[in-house]
Amino acid sequence: MRTGLAIGLFVVITGCAQDEVRPDPEPPLGRVDLRAAMQATGDISPVGIAIAPDGQRFVFEETAGLYRLDGDVAVAVVPMSAMPDPGPTAPIKLPFTDLVAIGPNTFAMTAIGDGYVLDTTAMTLEQRFCYLPDETPRSLTQRTDGIAYDAASGKLYAQPNTYDAAGVFQYAQVAGYVLATGEDVEWHTAGTDVAATGMISIPDVGLVLGQGSRLTRFDRFGGTSELLDDLERFGVRSIDGLAIDAAAGTLVVVDKETDTVFDIDLARITL
Length: 271
Known about the structure:
This protein is mainly beta. It has one helix at residues 34-37, and strands at 10-14, 17-21, 30-33, 46-51, 57-61, 65-70, 73-79, 98-103, 106-110, 114-119, 124-130, 141-150, 155-163, 169-178, 184-190, 198-202, 206-211, 214-219, 224-230, 241-245, 250-255, 260-265. The longest helix has 4 residues, at 34-37.
């Protein structure tokens, strides 16, 4: 599915030299200053954005917890100090790195090595899947900064990167899990340069990864990534969470470099 035209780069040639000319900036449809919304006096670290089935928006800040966005006001829903304890069998290895809405008042979240389901009505946090397989040497750790939900298949997707004890990158993967059981049913090798900080599953498109200001489509079966678009022209510096607002017809991006939530018209980007 192509929802817009790709906007390329223009090249001006003078003799043998080539100078890259960037396209003019394009204003997004909307933007929310999260520092102002949260009444924060310093820098913040928003790591995920989620849109619930009723259209409510939620953002997760790494140290402060889960907030609901009411326009340009952020309302605390589950502060980190009130985050439920999943129990001794699956202790949380902070930080939480991303979230996605999977139902009313229910979110899938990722931390180091594990994925959880947070129910803000029952105030429970349940470990649902592990993206560090049992056979992985204990000297290795895995971190994913992107989680997505495909409602049609009932699957969650994560993009774990593996590091050794010294924190040196080893390899990148994309994994799929059955939401109901947490069973891992897909493992795909990704390129060594793939370290998504946002991810979304879009019908007829597939898995779309955000890294820096770029969107790429990940081919799960070929293990390749295809550049779709660059959101830099809208002011996005770092895609740290992705969601689609179907009612507004926008791609919603949270950017922790600018501490901003962007609404970008789907018709103006390539997917």
